[in-house]
Every structure is written in C-alpha cells, then in structure tokens.
Design brief:
Helix content: 25-40%
CATH topology: Conserved hypothetical protein from pyrococcus furiosus pfu- 392566-001, ParB domain
Shape: globular
Strand order of the largest sheet: 3-6-4-5
Largest sheet: 4 strands, mixed
Radius of gyration: 14 Å
Number of helices: 5
Number of strands: 6
CATH architecture: Alpha-Beta Complex
Strand content: 15-25%
Distance between the termini: 31 Å
Length: 133
C-alpha cells in the first residue's frame, strides 16, 4: 500500500540521544519515491519503545527510558485519535531500525490489540538525508 497524503504540522523531528531526524523530510522522500508499506510486529516495537509505561494504570518507571515517548508528557487522548491507515516510518541508522514517525500510532495499535502495523522503511541513504545531527 503506497500512501501519499501526509498532513502534519511543519517542523516535526525525532530525537534519539544526540541524534535528530527531520520527519517532514522523511515524508517528502516517501512522497517523491513511493514504496510499499510492510507489516511490522506491534509487540516488538511496543516493547522497544516502552509503550506499556504509557498506559494509564502503569506503575511509575524510574528507569531512564532511552527510546520512546516520555510517560510524563505523552498525550494519550491525542494518540487514540491518530489515523492507523497512515504507516509509521522506520529509519535505518547504523544497521539498526528506529521508529522515527508514529509513536502515537504505535500506542493506539498496542492498546487496540493490533498484532501488526504498516510501516515505510527508509534506506540508510535516505536516513542520512533526514539526519540533522
């Protein structure tokens, strides 16, 4: 499934440690070079991004969360309004996969019991092109 319509506010970024990726630029790359979305396992991504810690009844987790949304500021009400037809975007950085766009959709998939979610995968070259720092 190729998806072209990607409305979003300008200036959206994904930060991972000292790295920063331009989500708007990733969307532009996908619009210029459409690709098929591939199914990804929700449970694996939810575990990697500590989605369970975002649930309303989650016990406070005082560990440092390196990857995933901050439970103190995550907006569950907004997350459940997101469009699950829009694939998430996964970047390849140093042979590792990073979900650079779609944490809210991942949360909605997780709480809704989805087993898979659609994703666009960027190449390593495309990931370098969206990397800011």
């Amino acid at each position: 499934m190729a998806y072209h319509k990607t409305p979003r506010p300008a200036g959206e970024y994904f930060r991972f440690g000292a790295l920063c990726f331009d989500v708007d630029k990733a969307q532009q790359i996908i619009a210029r070079k459409p690709r098929e979305a591939v199914e990804q396992p929700v449970a694996e991504w939810a575990k990697a991004y500590h989605i369970k810690s975002l649930l309303p009844d989650a016990e406070p987790d005082h560990r440092v969360i390196v990857l995933g949304p901050d439970p103190r500021t995550f907006n569950r009400a907004y997350a459940i309004t997101t469009d699950l037809e829009l694939p998430v975007i996964i970047a390849i950085h140093e042979k590792q996969r990073l979900l650079v766009d779609g944490c809210n959709r991942l949360y909605k998939h997780y709480v809704g019991g989805s087993t898979t979610m659609s994703a666009f995968i960027l190449t390593e070259a495309e990931t370098r092109a969206i990397r800011i720092s």
